[in-house]
Amino acid sequence: MKKEIIYTAKAPEAIGPYSQGVKYNGFVYTSGQIPFNVEAGALVTTGIKDEVHQVMKNVKAILEAAGTSIDNIVKTTIFVKDLNDFNEVNEVYASYFTDTNYPARECVEVARLPRDVNVEISVIAIA
User: Are 107 and 86 in contact (CB under 8 A)?
Assistant: First the structure.
């Protein structure tokens, strides 16, 4: 099987040697997404809820470019700068799923993220 590189202009360009996503063997793997709004050409910095919304929009755009959707996510990794934001992150994150069959997930606090953002999310979805 050959891997397929996923790209969409609706999500941020990679800022390093990686792809927005890779489709392989029935799954889509996204790179970590930060709260960068492509249309505005700027980071969203108006609070953790707005930032998580933007990250999830970016994830959604990559999944759709790969021919799948948020409903097919099986695993999520969330990195936050401050675990005190955990409840707000969960509130926004949960709003992107249509039922309570949530994917497996971990959420970890980290010292620093690219571009000094407060949240980064990557996912694995069924293609």
Answer: yes
- Residue 107 falls in the annotated catalytic set: yes
Per the DSSP assignment, residues forming a β-bridge with 5 are 22
The residues near 35 (Cβ < 8 Å, ≥ 6 apart) are 43, 44, 45, 50, 51, 52, 54, 55, 58, 117, 118, 119
The catalytic position among 22, 43, 107, 113 is 107
pLDDT computed for residue 46 by the predictor = 96
**How many angstroms separate the CA atoms of 75 and 15, rounded?**
23
Contacts of 17 (CB under 8 A, 6+ apart): none
Return the percentage of the chain with pLDDT > 70, whole number: 100
pLDDT of residue 99: 80
Distance CA 57, CA 76 (A): 14
Q: What is the pLDDT of residues 71-105, one digit of tens each?
A: 999 999 999 999 999 999 999 999 999 888 899 99
Neighbours of 14 (CB within 10 A): 11
